[in-house]
Amino acid sequence: MKMISSAKVHQNEQALRKLQPFKDKIKSIMGHILATDLTFDSPLIQPREVRKASVVVYGSDDGLCGAYNGNILKGLLVHLDKIREAHGEDVEIDVYPVGKKIEKAVRRLKGQRINIIVPEGVDSKMKGDRVNAFTHSLRDAFVKGETDLVDVVYMKYLSMSRQVLTDETLFPVSEESLAVETGTGNENQLYIFEPDANSIFNQVLPMFVLSTMQEITIENRSSEQAARVMAMQSANDNARKLNEELQLEYNKLRQQSITTELLDILGGQVER
Questions:
Q1: 107 and 122 Cβ atoms separated by less than 8 Å
Q2: Which CATH number fits domain 2-232: 3.40.50.720, 3.40.1380.10, 3.30.413.10, 1.10.10.10?
Q3: How do residues 182-211 score in pLDDT, each as one tens digit?
Q4: Looking at the whole model, is its pTM more than 0.90?
Q5: Fewer CB within a 10 Å sphere, N or C end of the chain?
Q6: Do residues 24 and 177 touch, judged by C-beta distance below 8 A?
Q7: Are the C-beta atoms of residues 148 and 50 closer than 8 Å to each other?
């Protein structure tokens, strides 16, 4: 299982590398547009009073990954407290668990103005088209006013031995965060935008959100497999240590048995 999970980690790393050029291009386009100092209008960047929030929490569908889901659940509880502190105790929160294990864990949170919503066909192993459909549903809910805030809690993949619990705001998209990620110099003043910069902005912004959600999904999947590799390595080390202890105990008992038999033989010879 350790070897299988290691192979899956490498597959997800390759998927992240393939996604990166697409996201970099979107960032480049956003950087050129934002550097024009124009005013942009999009329903996806409009903040409003938060009366209802949505939190997408990524976990795993399978077990044998150590404390992976437990750590995510602890992070989710902290994030829910932050939402309550920022927007009031009366805010209603919809939690979207992605993965059977995390779904089972968050079921106990139901109540106290917390709703658990499990979208059909959404899991930690979903393909790109399903991720896009799920993201579109979240976007539509935000645009229609069915929710005022959409956050994502997931495990960010850094390396095989290091994954960091992360939370990001998906909607509304912050212009400041876009500017930080996509900032460029003045060389884009040479660009001419057709039909206009705002129209292009409204076309590219949803693509930016989709690529972000795709990246989050793959990162979480990589983190799950990496956690499983570490759990299997720990189990293997513990089994080896236990085997050594049992072998030592066996040798001691065997030596005692041999000693007892020798003493019996010697005792019989003395009696003769």
A1: no
A2: 3.40.1380.10
A3: 444 445 456 777 788 888 888 999 999 999
A4: no
A5: C
A6: no
A7: yes
